[in-house]
């Protein structure tokens, strides 16, 4: 079968396309310069790419988009003997309030973009596509840099292979439970928790909430936009893209030393499976109609039974998140969507959500501490954590307890809020002399960290 994954990530791959006010320089698409200043907008359009007849397509990209810049990916498909309209994934940058395009389509449309997936309605599917990415800058001194454009299609005729059994191969990945994270969003951040685990394996030290606020989609009103999640990893310098894959491809990734994220749906008991029409996966800790988790390895028992080793954030604790599921059951629960992440390229420019160091000082109000940045008082908005029913920020802290933790996210977190006076509220029962670290994560994923001895 023809490949169903298309990656544009080097000069040769991009060369077949059309360049408009952009050039491929130093390993990335960048805006052209004139008299030492970058132009404000440019566009790259790939050549027409033939594919096996497909019913769905998902695009992803990796880019460094510094403050004052953005990128916007588009796709169109050849279906029913004609090209569809160009479909936009929305402007994207860690410095923007990111939003996909509203899902709007006519019943007569042969294809439409459903947040992050192109749905093809026409019998026989689509047989080709093109990718396009626009680059924007409102500061002539900086340019976005696009390192990767990717598209994966789900073929109409897709024979998913399982590959040969692996005796045992495990990738060490930190395991996190989403259930113990910010109570306002913990139940819905499986995707950012998954990508946080995958990036922290490579040496990052990110909090799941940090990634969650950074990849939130204000149109979708959630963290489930696969393309945005891959883009966040790209902003830290990682090669990360969305794929339609099979078990054989997951095994290939694991053999190569790469853990990956997968989209699943399952029930934990036969009764729940029957009640919700979901596949049974024994050993899971609940029932879900849509969930993301990490695949970190495979192993085979002496009787030949194959298992997949996962970090499943649906678990109730970090320690319980490392799970082992029967491969046969997992295969029925997995819909074929995967995040592939291939480590950090040190040659790439990065433009990830920013971290700043702040200072907290006591106020005249019991348990309230004022935030200072660069020596100046910074009053926080009273709706920092929640606005119009949406969680727009996270305020939390950890207590120094003398233990060593593999990552910061493994520590025990206490979640708090902003007071009506714009201060940070801390528990008055914390013993005097206790050393704590406070984390303030804004709605774009940018974070302020402050140490304090109460």
Characteristics:
Immunoglobulin-like; 3 domains; 7 helices; Jelly Rolls; 13-stranded antiparallel sheet; seven-stranded antiparallel sheet; Cathepsin B, Chain A; 454 residues; mainly beta
Number of helices: 7
What would you say the CATH architecture of the largest domain is?
Alpha-Beta Complex
Total number of beta strands: 33
Number of domains: 3
- CATH domain fold name of the largest domain: Cathepsin B, Chain A
Specify the overall morphology. Answer: globular
CATH class of the largest domain: Alpha Beta
Rg computed from alpha carbons, rounded to a whole number of angstroms = 23 Å
Major sheet details: 13 strands, antiparallel
Ranges with pLDDT <50 over ≥5 residues? none
Distance between the termini: 64 Å
- CATH superfamily of the largest domain, called what? Cysteine proteinases
Could you tell me the mean pLDDT?
96
**Estimated helix fraction:** 10-25%
Pairing-aware structural class of the strands and helices? mainly beta
What percentage of amino acids are in beta strands? 35-45%
């Amino acid at each position: 079968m023809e490949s169903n994954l298309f990656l544009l990530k080097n000069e040769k791959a991009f060369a077949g396309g059309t360049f408009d006010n952009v050039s491929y320089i130093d390993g990335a698409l960048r805006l052209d310069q004139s008299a030492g200043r970058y132009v404000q907008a440019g566009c790259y359009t790939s050549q027409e790419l033939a594919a096996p007849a497909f019913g769905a397509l998902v695009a992803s990209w990796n880019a460094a988009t510094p403050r004052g810049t953005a990128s916007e990916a588009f796709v169109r498909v050849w279906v029913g003997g004609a090209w569809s309209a160009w479909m936009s994934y929305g402007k994207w940058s860690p410095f923007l309030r990111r939003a996909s395009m509203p899902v709007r389509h006519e019943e007569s449309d042969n294809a439409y973009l459903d947040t992050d997936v192109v749905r093809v309605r026409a019998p026989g599917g689509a047989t080709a596509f093109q990718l396009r990415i626009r680059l924007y800058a409102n500061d002539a001194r900086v340019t976005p840099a696009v390192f990767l454009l990717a598209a994966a299609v789900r073929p109409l005729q897709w024979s998913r292979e399982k590959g040969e059994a692996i005796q045992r191969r495990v990738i060490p990945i930190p395991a996190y439970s989403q259930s113990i994270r910010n109570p306002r969003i913990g139940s819905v951040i499986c995707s950012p928790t998954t990508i946080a685990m995958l990036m922290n394996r490579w040496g990052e030290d990110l909090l799941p909430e940090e990634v969650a606020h950074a990849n939130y989609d204000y149109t979708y009103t959630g963290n489930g936009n696969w393309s945005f999640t891959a883009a966040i990893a790209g902003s830290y310098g990682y090669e990360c893209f969305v794929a339609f894959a099979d078990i054989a491809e997951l095994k290939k990734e694991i053999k190569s030393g790469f853990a990956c994220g997968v989209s699943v749906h399952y029930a934990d008991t036969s009764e729940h499976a029957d009640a919700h029409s979901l596949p049974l996966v024994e050993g899971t800790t609940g029932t879900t109609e849509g969930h993301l988790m990490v695949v970190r390895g495979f192993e085979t028992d002496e009787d030949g039974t194959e298992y997949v080793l996962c970090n499943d954030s649906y678990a109730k604790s970090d320690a319980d998140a490392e799970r082992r599921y029967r491969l046969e059951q997992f295969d029925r629960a997995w819909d074929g969507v995967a995040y592939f992440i291939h480590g950090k390229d040190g040659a790439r420019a990065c433009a990830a959500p920013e971290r700043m160091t702040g200072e907290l000082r006591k106020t005249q109000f019991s348990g309230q501490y004022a935030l200072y940045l660069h020596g100046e008082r910074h009053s926080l908005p009273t709706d920092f954590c929640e606005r119009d029913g949406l969680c727009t920020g996270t305020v939390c802290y950890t207590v120094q307890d003398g233990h060593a933790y593999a990552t910061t996210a493994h520590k025990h977190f206490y979640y708090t809020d902003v007071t009506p006076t714009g201060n940070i509220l801390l528990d008055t029962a914390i013993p005097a002399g206790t050393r704590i670290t406070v984390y303030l994560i804004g709605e774009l994923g940018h974070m302020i960290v402050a140490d304090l001895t109460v």
